[in-house]
């Protein structure tokens, strides 16, 4: 039995007939040949499969493709081209934010999604006061990226790359970050 699924991936529309048990990760890699999302653990524990759905980062190994019918998906390939890298891709390159590179597409997608979350005022586990404005410290970056593992240990350079993009976006925004809404228990 198969079900019809329609995706937009990196701006291109696809119509698929898939087994309803197929994950987004397997649909991207096996059906569409989009190979940047990596299958590290296949259990939601390493972040290598991270892609963006809209501006939200998701672990594609945990998403059933049939549930994402109509989704607008962006993988690391969709964030720039070889001739014109996206700003996060360029920053990873300049800061040597990768060694083997296996985790890198997921790290880059996660970093882009994480900055959207921060800019939307979403606190993290290490945010000192969830009811106040807060800085994107290196501690915040590390916590927010903690779902993306790198067996090569390129973490220091990954933080530096994300820091550069975050600082650049903050300067461009030229306006204070929104104060998160009060969280009621
Ligand atoms: S392959 Fe998805 S989290 Fe590891
Ligand atoms: S660069 Fe090798 S796993 Fe991260």
From TrEMBL:
Signal peptide: none annotated. Keywords: 2Fe-2S, Iron, Iron-sulfur, Metal-binding, Oxidoreductase. It comes from the Bacteria. The keyword Translocase does not apply. InterPro entries: 2Fe-2S-bd (IPR002888), 2Fe-2S-bd_dom_sf (IPR036884), 2Fe-2S_ferredoxin-like_sf (IPR036010), 2Fe-2S_ferredoxin-type (IPR001041), 2Fe2S_fd_BS (IPR006058), Aldehyde_Oxdr_Iron-Sulfur (IPR052914), Beta-grasp_dom_sf (IPR012675). Residues 3-79 form the 2Fe-2S ferredoxin-type domain. Pfam families: Fer2 (PF00111), Fer2_2 (PF01799). This is 2Fe-2S iron-sulfur cluster binding domain-containing protein.
């Amino acid at each position: 039995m198969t079900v019809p699924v329609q995706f937009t991936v990196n701006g291109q529309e696809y119509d698929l007939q898939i087994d309803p048990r197929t994950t987004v990760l397997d649909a991207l890699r096996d059906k569409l040949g989009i190979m940047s999302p990596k299958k590290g653990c296949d259990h939601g524990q390493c972040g290598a499969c991270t892609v963006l759905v809209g501006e939200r980062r998701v672990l594609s190994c945990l998403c059933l493709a049939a549930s994402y019918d109509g989704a607008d998906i962006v993988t690391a390939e969709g964030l720039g081209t070889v001739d014109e890298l996206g700003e996060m891709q360029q920053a990873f390159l300049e800061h040597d934010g990768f060694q083997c590179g296996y985790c890198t597409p997921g790290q880059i997608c996660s970093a882009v999604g994480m900055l959207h979350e921060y800019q939307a005022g979403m606190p993290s586990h290490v945010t000192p006061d969830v009811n106040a404005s807060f800085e994107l410290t290196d501690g915040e970056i590390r916590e927010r990226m903690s779902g993306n593992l790198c067996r090569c240990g390129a973490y220091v350079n990954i933080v530096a790359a994300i820091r550069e993009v975050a600082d650049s976006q903050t300067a461009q925004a030229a306006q204070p970050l929104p104060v998160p809404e009060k969280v009621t228990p």
